[in-house]
Amino acid sequence: MGRITKNQREDNFASYNALILDIFLNEGWDHVTYDRLSKETGLRKSTLQGYYPSNADFEVAIKGKVFPIILQHLDFTSKPLLLESWKKAMKVTQFKMIMRMFVMQAHKKGSEGSGRLGVLGLAKYISDRLPTEDPLEIIQLLFGLTVTELLNIDRSHMPT
């Protein structure tokens, strides 16, 4: 196969990024693999590695796209409405996959991962929208809610 033009490479990269975003939002970050991309695109893994040298480089495909998706599901009118909208959003596949990725990154990368920056950005957004509330407390409530929703734990599972 011959070399491709810079424009074709950019078009290919945009197409692969769109595929990565689609797989991530609909199936989860753990489904974004070289094998999966190879299957979907018909390309060899070595060709994909020319675009994404390591699987950590897949993150470029979602950069700048996650926060707007999160925000479209949330109501920042008040703390109770924010918590309620978050709980409802956890029933939406794309939102749930994003939150699942945050939890996975927290486990795998701790404070070194890009998830930390995303959560801090959300805390800043909360602080700006709800200035009389404690953003750390809200983040802790939201991510506690995230974990219980991911584990499918609700009041019916609690001791009486």
From TrEMBL:
InterPro entries: Homeodomain-like_sf (IPR009057). It holds the Pfam family LuxT_C. It comes from the Bacteria. This is TetR family transcriptional regulator.
